């Protein structure tokens, strides 16, 4: 089902990528990938981490040239040696990490590098403001002013600024790399509105996402990449999630969420009336041995803040925490660790992994006490610990001495997770354990969570992916504005009921804990 | 096959090549290669007397660079060390000429070094002020204070027993060289095998991740600076006792020479990467180049320019290497 399934648009495609090949030292990143996008089409790129999506969009954005193959815009081959060439060709890219100047205003950010000029080539501030307002009006954005400083904006609004910036450069092809990764549900809805408006204007949108539901919501066609090769291009209407997952991983995953039921034991973590303003307000919850408790909520509802308060990163101002029945006062992560708590942070890049360190050193970092005697590290014990972790988590690394920063996202996440388990914790707090990692690594982490719960570990899992929360949790708590507003058992929870509690619809919040 | 088998990794011949291409190996090759090349041009360069003078006169830079390397690995920098060495030398010398027991004079330099650096570490770590600003302030205070207090007078008439640098162990190994090797080896082992040493790399590589692993960043930084102060004290003793006088100034840009040794030795200015063995080898190389310039009839003033070239070449090579690896 490769070339035969290729859908040919009736007219010349606006963007056409032909047989792109790209190798890096020791790695074949892309081997002959082709796809195209018509005017007004949303074309999704799908693939596991390492499938070649990033490399592909970097080539189309002019970040680096392909070894072979060509990119056509409006039927004409373009030479994309530099990002500026792509911009001239009408291609704009919005990366996951937004590239804005936080101290400058919305208008200044939009027109950075191509500000309207008046006489003597000075910046025409009035024209800039007017053009910004016109752009805002054209997308019906009413909660953003030209003069606002970007640093004060929400993530959703910052992303809108980037989109406006692309439009200000007359981009006809817009590439969006995981645009919803950091957005709230509300912002996702607004993003989709904007994407639909862009579609109506004839902009071709290349949409990269791990979230299948988004692809079905917004995309017209989807191209699946695997190991740097083109696997299939399908019309979204002609496919379903199971088929896409299978195309992505090249095998059928029985269940994305292999929840195994295990006997639930004694309470490991008991939290009562925990306070840490503004986002932890009178929180009470219990996590028992063998239990996976899912913590749902919108971004900004206080879930990560709660986790960090329990873990002593931002110690509580009031309330009570009991670990295995013992009242404790946790003032630092070091203390939390010694009490048998483990916390896998949301942002593994900045919070979880020490990138210049080797795989071995990262694995032992949270468990140095276990491999160090009299302050000195026993190399043999350390190698064994890391080797066991690599095996248990199926980390793909060339050796224990490989630099951790060079591994793929999924493998990095496995190391961050494994590092904490090396310490033999009683309670594991996972903050977005599978965000941004590919389906295969995701299934792997879910399988491990199930196994760990079966071994009696208590798990508190924060997740913004409702299917994950629904699939993995024995119980589900919903947070809103720093409070726990609802609790559901595995059986009674539905996507709708949790979603409603997250958003604050009253009829569903009556079950409030 | 999900995980790559790890057993074969040790025997991989490419790994052995990689060890040869390490910064430490390259520096060792450069140190020997340069000696041979200059020796062919002017055999007097290889005279035992000259080689030992080169090492003797510069061992203190290598000792200070060990501490500096730790500081840079932890993600900080210290530009006050040159001025501090001058102050510590003066404190020690003043005590010695005023009749204090010699051991007390020596210890005073070590203790004062630890105190001043630990204080800076506290300001950097707990008040969260960038190291470059804190140490710049300290540099001015120490330099200004030293010249004001001493009035620019040199300390002379030092008791003979004060001259630590004159001691020769077993009658052959000069104490400065012994101390340089001892400090480097101990520090290297400690950085590589101790939990505290590992904490320095973790804090410099990713402070946030280190914190969540229960490694205290402030405590690690204060510890690093305190050790750096100890090594600065040791360096000051070597510096103070190698001549018959202690000047109220230190060699100009001493801190830059020390930082150069660290950076050329392979310590990443971004933190998290580097070894003290590399910095000691680099300190030796820099001293060797300075001496070699004399023997090949080039003005020794060129040494600063050569150091600059070394820094740029090292940093550029490091960045290129990173880029090539990050490409995939």
TrEMBL record, chain A:
<dbReference type="InterPro" id="IPR017871">
    <property type="entry name" value="ABC_transporter-like_CS"/>
</dbReference>
<keyword id="KW-0547">Nucleotide-binding</keyword>
<dbReference type="InterPro" id="IPR027417">
    <property type="entry name" value="P-loop_NTPase"/>
</dbReference>
<dbReference type="InterPro" id="IPR050107">
    <property type="entry name" value="ABC_carbohydrate_import_ATPase"/>
</dbReference>
<feature type="domain" description="ABC transporter">
    <location>
        <begin position="251"/>
        <end position="506"/>
    </location>
</feature>
<comment type="similarity">
    <text>Belongs to the ABC transporter superfamily.</text>
</comment>
<keyword id="KW-0677">Repeat</keyword>
<feature type="domain" description="ABC transporter">
    <location>
        <begin position="15"/>
        <end position="252"/>
    </location>
</feature>
<dbReference type="InterPro" id="IPR003593">
    <property type="entry name" value="AAA+_ATPase"/>
</dbReference>
<protein>
    <submittedName>
        <fullName>Ribose import ATP-binding protein RbsA</fullName>
    </submittedName>
</protein>
<dbReference type="InterPro" id="IPR003439">
    <property type="entry name" value="ABC_transporter-like_ATP-bd"/>
</dbReference>
<comment type="function">
    <text>Involved in beta-(1--&gt;2)glucan export. Transmembrane domains (TMD) form a pore in the inner membrane and the ATP-binding domain (NBD) is responsible for energy generation.</text>
</comment>
<keyword id="KW-0067">ATP-binding</keyword>
<keyword id="KW-0762">Sugar transport</keyword>
<keyword id="KW-0813">Transport</keyword>
<keyword id="KW-0472">Membrane</keyword>
<dbReference type="Pfam" id="PF00005">
    <property type="entry name" value="ABC_tran"/>
</dbReference>
<dbReference type="GO" id="GO:0005524">
    <property type="term" value="F:ATP binding"/>
</dbReference>
<keyword id="KW-1278">Translocase</keyword>
<keyword id="KW-1003">Cell membrane</keyword>
From TrEMBL, chain B:
<dbReference type="InterPro" id="IPR001851">
    <property type="entry name" value="ABC_transp_permease"/>
</dbReference>
<keyword id="KW-0472">Membrane</keyword>
<feature type="transmembrane region" description="Helical">
    <location>
        <begin position="79"/>
        <end position="97"/>
    </location>
</feature>
<feature type="transmembrane region" description="Helical">
    <location>
        <begin position="103"/>
        <end position="124"/>
    </location>
</feature>
<comment type="subunit">
    <text>The complex is composed of two ATP-binding proteins (LsrA), two transmembrane proteins (LsrC and LsrD) and a solute-binding protein (LsrB).</text>
</comment>
<keyword id="KW-0812">Transmembrane</keyword>
<dbReference type="Pfam" id="PF02653">
    <property type="entry name" value="BPD_transp_2"/>
</dbReference>
<feature type="transmembrane region" description="Helical">
    <location>
        <begin position="25"/>
        <end position="42"/>
    </location>
</feature>
<keyword id="KW-0997">Cell inner membrane</keyword>
<comment type="function">
    <text>Part of the ABC transporter complex LsrABCD involved in autoinducer 2 (AI-2) import. Probably responsible for the translocation of the substrate across the membrane.</text>
</comment>
<keyword id="KW-1003">Cell membrane</keyword>
<protein>
    <recommendedName>
        <fullName>Autoinducer 2 import system permease protein LsrC</fullName>
    </recommendedName>
</protein>
<feature type="transmembrane region" description="Helical">
    <location>
        <begin position="302"/>
        <end position="320"/>
    </location>
</feature>
<feature type="transmembrane region" description="Helical">
    <location>
        <begin position="171"/>
        <end position="191"/>
    </location>
</feature>
<feature type="transmembrane region" description="Helical">
    <location>
        <begin position="221"/>
        <end position="242"/>
    </location>
</feature>
<feature type="transmembrane region" description="Helical">
    <location>
        <begin position="54"/>
        <end position="72"/>
    </location>
</feature>
<keyword id="KW-0813">Transport</keyword>
<feature type="transmembrane region" description="Helical">
    <location>
        <begin position="131"/>
        <end position="151"/>
    </location>
</feature>
<keyword id="KW-1133">Transmembrane helix</keyword>
């Amino acid at each position: 089902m490769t070339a035969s399934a290729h859908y040919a648009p009736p007219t010349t495609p606006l963007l056409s990528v032909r047989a792109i090949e790209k190798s890096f030292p020791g790695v074949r990143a892309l081997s002959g990938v082709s796809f195209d996008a018509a005017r007004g089409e949303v074309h999704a790129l799908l693939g596991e981490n390492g499938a070649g999506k990033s490399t592909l969009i970097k080539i189309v954005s002019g970040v680096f040239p392909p070894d072979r193959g060509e990119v056509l815009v409006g039927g004409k081959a373009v030479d994309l040696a530099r990002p500026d060439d792509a911009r001239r060709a009408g291609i704009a890219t919005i990366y996951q990490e937004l590239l804005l100047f936080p101290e400058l205003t919305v208008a200044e950010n939009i027109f950075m590098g191509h500000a309207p000029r008046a006489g003597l080539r000075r910046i025409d501030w009035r024209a800039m403001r007017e053009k910004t307002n016109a752009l805002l009006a054209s997308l019906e954005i009413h909660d953003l002013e030209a003069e606002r400083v970007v640093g004060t904006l929400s993530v959703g609004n910052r992303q809108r600024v980037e989109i406006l910036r692309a439009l200000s450069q007359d981009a006809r092809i817009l590439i969006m790399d995981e645009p919803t990764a950091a957005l709230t549900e509300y912002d996702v809805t607004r993003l989709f509105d904007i994407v639909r408006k862009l579609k109506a204007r004839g902009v071709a949108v290349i949409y990269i996402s791990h979230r299948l539901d988004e692809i079905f919501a917004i995309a017209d066609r989807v191209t699946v990449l695997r190991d740097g090769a083109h696997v299939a291009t399908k019309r979204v209407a002609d496919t379903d999630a199971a088929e896409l997952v299978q195309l992505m991983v090249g095998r059928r995953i029985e269940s994305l969420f292999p929840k195994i039921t295990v006997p639930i034991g004694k309470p490991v973590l008991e939290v009562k009336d925990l306070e840490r303003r503004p986002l932890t307000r009178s929180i009470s919850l219990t996590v028992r041995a063998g239990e996976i408790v899912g913590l749902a909520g919108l971004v900004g509802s206080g879930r990560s803040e709660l986790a960090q308060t329990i873990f002593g990163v931002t110690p509580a101002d009031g309330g009570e925490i009991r670990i295995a029945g013992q009242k404790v006062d946790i003032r630092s992560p070091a203390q939390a660790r010694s009490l048998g708590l483990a916390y896998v942070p949301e942002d593994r890049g900045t919070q979880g992994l020490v990138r210049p360190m080797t795989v071995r050193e990262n694995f032992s970092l949270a468990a140095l006490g276990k491999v160090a005697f009299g302050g000195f590290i026993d190399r043999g014990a350390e190698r064994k610990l890391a080797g066991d972790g690599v095996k248990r988590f199926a980390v793909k690394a060339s050796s224990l001495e490989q630099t951790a920063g060079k591994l793929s996202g999924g493998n990095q996440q496995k190391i961050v997770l494994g590092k904490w388990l090396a310490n033999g914790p009683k309670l594991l707090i996972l903050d977005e354990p599978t965000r941004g990692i590919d389906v295969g690594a995701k299934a792997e982490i879910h399988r491990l969570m199930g196994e760990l719960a079966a071994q009696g570990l208590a798990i508190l899992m924060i997740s913004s992916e409702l299917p994950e929360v629904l699939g993995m949790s024995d119980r589900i708590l919903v947070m809103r504005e720093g409070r726990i507003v609802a609790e559901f058992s595995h059986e009674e929870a539905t996507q709708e009921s949790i979603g409603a509690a997250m958003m604050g619809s009253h009829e569903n919040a009556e079950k409030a804990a | 096959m999900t995980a790559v088998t790890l057993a074969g990794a040790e025997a991989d011949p490419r790994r052995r090549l990689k060890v040869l291409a390490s910064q430490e190996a390259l520096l060792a090759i450069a140190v020997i290669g340069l000696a041979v090349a200059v020796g062919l041009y002017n055999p007097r360069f290889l005279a035992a007397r000259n080689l030992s003078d080169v090492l003797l006169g510069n061992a203190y830079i290598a000792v200070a660079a060990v501490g500096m390397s730790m500081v840079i690995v932890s993600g900080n920098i210290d530009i006050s060390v040159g001025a501090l060495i001058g102050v510590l030398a003066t404190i020690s010398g003043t005590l010695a000429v005023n009749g204090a027991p010699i051991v007390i004079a020596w210890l005073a330099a070590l203790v004062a070094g630890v105190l001043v650096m630990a204080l800076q570490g506290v300001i950097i770590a707990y008040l969260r002020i960038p190291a470059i600003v804190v140490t710049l302030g300290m540099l001015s205070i120490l330099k200004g204070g030293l010249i004001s207090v001493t009035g620019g007078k040199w300390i002379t008439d030092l008791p003979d027993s004060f001259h630590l640098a004159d001691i020769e162990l077993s009658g052959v190994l000069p104490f400065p060289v012994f101390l340089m090797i001892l400090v480097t080896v101990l520090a290297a082992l400690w950085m590589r095998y101790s939990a505290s040493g590992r904490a320095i790399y973790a804090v410099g590589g990713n402070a946030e991740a280190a914190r969540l692993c229960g490694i205290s960043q402030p405590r690690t930084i204060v510890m690093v600076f305190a050790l750096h102060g100890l090594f600065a004290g040791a360096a000051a003793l070597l510096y103070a006792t190698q001549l018959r006088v202690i000047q109220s100034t230190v060699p100009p840009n001493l801190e830059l020479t020390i930082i150069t040794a660290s950076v050329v030795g392979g310590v990443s200015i971004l933190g998290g990467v580097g070894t003290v063995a590399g910095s000691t080898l680099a300190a030796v190389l820099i001293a060797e180049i300075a001496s070699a310039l004399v023997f090949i009839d080039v003005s020794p003033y060129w040494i600063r320019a050569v150091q600059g070239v070394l820094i740029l070449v090292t940093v550029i090579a490091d960045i290129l290497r990173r880029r090539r690896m990050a490409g995939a």
